[in-house]
Design brief:
This protein is of the alpha/beta class. The chain contains 17 helices and 17 strands.
Length: 487
């Protein structure tokens, strides 16, 4: 039963999300403007319940703020959301489709081609998938100098798109649509094709037949009338990658249930006030999800904390900046690694990033190094990407290196000038974005590694940090051997 307080029953058309298990209770997220307006200005908990179209029941409790949106809808970090990119020509109804899906006026809509100029992002919940991020893009057929800049920005969205939606006007299918499909296929991005404006005209039967034979998921819709939205949501659920619906554990395969993990969390100038950073929070949650124990200490308290234990922990995980002290204070028989290396496996390709780290041996004074950060934080005096890593790498190389820094979604098209790329742990990027960057580096023949690996390598503790990951350790030994043979 719902708790005392504000209660409302909603028909299914007001519910965006459907429960994973229709025989059990799940959360329904209200997107009704009428319902939200009645709750405007309150922060009281709201209990929402009703029936889905299959006859199952759902209920959930959400706190509503002044925007009328459920509390928690925007709390999931972007890096943990399924990124759904909406692509197509100008004026085919991409923005109208996004507005119809979310039941909100997220994107500006007009009859003028090219109304959407910059990508528009909308986070929301889409059960049973969970938190998603819709990205509405500018038309791929934009023209003029400014239009070409918009198209270039749209193309960058492909790099972080987990699932694509190709919107086509029912009256037209041609080279632009085929080029977008080819882009999806080359990147191995699952996609859905939506023929919009079917209230005005039906798509060409021959085109539909060809796509059907290619087993392309098709949806026939009218965004302005709200038709086809349920079918589109169902298609998105069907094509969502299994590794997103059932993601691998961050630590579960490294630590047996019932064992202890010690997390070393420095509290310094870079630590956000009053909270932990995302990799630390995710690690704690993953340990608990896998029935393990967790102890969190600062680096200067690690030795005493280990001495107090009746038996040693199964693993020590540290912030990479504290590698040297943690390495010295952790007995050799206890496995040790870093949050950054854990995320190299979770968000990217651990083996490829290990191979990239061995390129540090080949750096020479004067070489160019690109440092990439997924977030856009304000750098401090002793910033890890701008100060510490350059210092440690230059000490290892024995001379000055030339560093270039990029942040957020900025990443150079031409990577050929660089001898090495050192990337952050990508906690705020989704996995597709990081894998896209790794793929681009491989294609350009430029080695890439991440912060934790670059630090461990330059400080001489790389092998120990890779100890918990046998395949990565073997890849390191092999790459080091090949490098030695060449010299």
């Amino acid at each position: 039963m719902p708790p005392p307080g504000r209660v409302a029953t909603l028909p299914v058309e007001h519910v965006v999300a459907e429960p994973v298990n229709r025989s059990a209770e799940g959360c329904g997220v209200c997107q009704s403007r009428e319902f939200s307006s009645r709750l405007h200005g309150t922060t009281d908990p709201i209990w929402v319940y009703g029936r889905d179209r299959f006859g199952g029941t759902y209920s959930g409790c959400f706190g509503y703020g002044k925007t009328g949106e459920p509390a928690g809808m925007k709390t999931a970090p972007r890096g943990l959301r399924l990124h759904i990119g909406i692509f197509g020509r100008r004026n085919v109804g991409k923005s109208s489709l996004l507005n119809a899906l979310t039941r909100q006026d997220v994107s500006l809509v007009s009859d003028v081609a090219g109304t959407t100029t910059d990508p528009v992002e909308k986070p929301m919940e889409l059960l049973p998938i969970g938190p998603v991020l819709f990205i509405d893009t500018a038309g791929m057929d934009d023209i003029g100098d400014l239009g070409m800049m918009r198209v270039a920005r749209t193309r960058r969205i492909f790099e972080r798109t987990d699932v694509g939606i190709l919107v086509a006007d029912a009256a037209g299918w041609g080279e632009f649509e085929e080029a977008i499909l080819a882009e999806f296929r080359e990147r191995k991005t699952p996609f859905v094709v939506v023929f919009n404006k079917t209230d005005l005209i039906q798509p060409d039967a021959d085109v539909v037949e060809v796509l059907f034979r290619q087993q392309v998921p098709l949806v026939f819709a009218s965004a302005t009338q709200g038709k086809g939205m349920l079918e589109l949501r169902e298609s998105l659920i069907k094509v969502t990658p299994d590794d997103y619906l059932n993601p691998p554990s961050l630590l579960g395969d490294l630590v047996p249930a019932g064992e202890l993990v010690v997390l070393v969390v420095p509290i310094d100038m870079e630590a956000p006030k009053g909270r932990l950073i995302l990799p630390q929070v995710q690690s704690i949650r993953d340990i608990l999800d896998n029935d393990g124990y967790c102890m969190v200490v600062k680096e200067r308290e690690l030795r005493e904390a280990l001495d107090r234990l009746k038996r040693p922990p199964a693993l020590v995980v540290t912030d990479s900046q504290a590698f040297l002290k943690v390495d010295a204070d952790t007995p050799r028989e206890i496995p040790m690694t870093s949050f950054s290396i854990l995320f190299a496996r979770d968000k990217g390709d651990l083996v490829e990033l290990v191979r990239g780290a061995t390129a540090i041996d080949r750096l020479r004074p004067g070489d160019r190094v690109l440092v990439g950060e997924g977030c856009s934080h304000h750098p401090i005096g002793d910033d890890i990407g701008r100060v510490k890593i350059p210092r440690w790498l230059q000490q290892y190389v024995g001379g000055r290196l030339e560093f270039t820094h990029v942040q957020g979604h900025d990443f150079p098209e031409d990577l050929s000038p660089y001898h090495l790329i050192v990337h952050c742990g990508s906690c705020v990027l989704n996995r597709r974005a990081m894998l896209s960057r790794i793929y681009r580096c491989k294609r350009a023949g430029v080695p890439i590694t991440n912060y934790g690996m670059a630090i461990a390598f330059s400080l001489g503790i790389f092998e120990r940090a890779l100890g918990p990951f046998p395949a990565a350790y073997d890849a390191f030994r092999e790459a080091r051997s090949l490098s030695t043979d060449r010299t």
